[in-house]
Specification:
Elements lengths: L14 H10 L19 H7 L4 H10 L1 H23 L5 H10 L23 E6 L2 E6 L8
Antiparallel strand pairs: 1-2
């Protein structure tokens, strides 16, 4: 069989366990974060670099190896636990914690926008169209009426 080219994989069956251990060692020893706790944030990029992998390889392994994919998800959960706990205990700079929460933990910030004017005079109104067997009827939306 002819070689397809490219560098041979460095994947080995213990890699998911090795990765999990790397991430777990960054958790507080007794599960409690105190002022004296030394929290470091583990990253997949650092794990890859320390183990002579490219980060792209880790992403490929997630697709190809189910056990690795599961370990990767567990490591993401560890990252989330560390950033939330560290943020709440003020172990990380607030802007850093906010950035990492969005970038690594897939958290997002939502804004609720009130479209009413302060005196209520410019309350938005909606028009919806109700279809009935080929006919339609335009109605003014009333927030007090059920939508059915």
């Amino acid at each position: 069989m002819k070689n397809k080219g490219g560098r041979p994989t460095k994947y080995f069956k213990e890699l998911p366990d090795v990765m999990l251990e790397y991430f777990k060692k960054h958790l507080p020893k007794n599960g409690k974060v105190t002022i004296k706790s030394n929290l470091n944030f583990p990253t997949f990029a650092m794990f890859a670099a320390l183990n002579d992998f490219h980060i792209d390889s880790l992403h490929e392994y997630k697709k190809k190896y189910p056990k690795f994919s599961e370990a990767y998800k567990k490591c993401q959960a560890i990252q989330e636990a560390i950033i939330i706990t560290g943020g709440l205990k003020e172990k990380f700079n607030a802007q850093y914690a906010k950035f990492v929460s969005k970038a690594c933990c897939k958290m997002k910030e939502e804004e609720i926008i009130d479209h009413k004017s302060s005196d209520g005079s410019m309350t938005p109104s909606f028009t919806f169209v109700e279809y009935k067997q080929g006919e339609y009827e335009e109605q003014e939306w009333n927030k007090d009426l059920p939508l059915n």
